[in-house]
Amino acid sequence: MTLYPSVLGLIGNTPLVDISSLSPNPSARLFLKLEGQNPGGSVKDRVALSLIEQAERDGRLVPGKPDQILMEPSSGNTGIGLALVCRVKGYHLKVVMPTNVSIERRQLLELWGAEIIESPGSEGSNGAVRMAQRLAGENPQWVFLYQYGNPANPKAHYEGTGPEILHDCPGVTHFVAGLGTSGTLLGVGRFLREKLGDAVKIWAVEPPSGEVVDGLRNLDDGYIPPIFEELGGAELLDRKTVVRPRESIEWTRRLTDVGIFAGISTGAAVAGAIKCAASLAPGIEASIVVVSADGGWKYLSTGAWTDDLDEVTERAKSIIYF
Amino acid sequence: MAVEVRLPTVLRNHASGASVVSLDGATIGEVLAKLVAEYPGMSGQVVQDDGSLHKFVNIYLNDDDVRYLDGVNTPVPDGAEISILPAVAGG
Are residues A112 and A90 in the same domain? Predict the structure, then answer.
């Protein structure tokens, strides 16, 4: 066993688990990277640590100096990761978060001492980003890390998640992950493409959030993370597929067959990987790596595993799980 | 080719509140042109003047984003479902 000087040293180096028994194609193996094993419970711990350490290197944050305030828009996991890191390092965090997230997300932010600023649930994450940008303009003394536009976000995956995947699965042929800020896909995708060239395909999975975010006035209220455009996301991706709430819940449940208790976005990502496996020609050997963004703990209140599937599906349409 | 087009909430007021409309066309571009012709309120919302997709709209043919297929030139099989979704962030 290793002795860690801080819980922050536990971030990263997550396990990759073979879940090929769920694959519809015997030639396509499936591997799930369990980011829920991070101390804050999600892949966003990596991003949170990277954003804060970069700000410290840039001098925007000074370790040990009192009364430093950070503010960040988040649908949950980045906020929780930042709250953990801020608690350990002594910074005060304000998280701008839509009202329609699971209760556990709010509770986790509160237990790490973060302050929640609510944005309208009907506007989804887009509304939280808009509100945070306005607040940052009004409060220039706050440190606004802006995960959607900060290269330290994909850098965490380029330097951490990507090399870990290649180390554990050198023959990876497909990488599948959810598209939220695009940080995971950009960081891991660029790393694997540089190392393996076109032998690796990058698949993005998107929930149909825009269908139910009814607070948009028109399509100009849409949002594409600046890092996606600046780092050539459109050129990097080979395929982007939408996975609907029912399919996401069904695969979240199926994962328990292989002993995996993961969040709803993992169900969506695995559903995307299943489509990927099914699309391959028979006999073509493939190794598909999928990211499980978080564990299932934060979603117990949604009844995802226990309630009637139709009811859970309807409920999932009105909560943000990416 | 007869297809069903699923509309996001933000566009439904231009189609008398309908969430799904039936149209035809051989390519994504043709279907979207018919959509705008039938519901002129969507003009400029889905495709731009030069026929390319609006920056903040994602068009899915069945489950696949057409930007990663052949864009507006993507062929549309009979009975396909097309979904229009606004670009939304997560995280």
Answer: yes
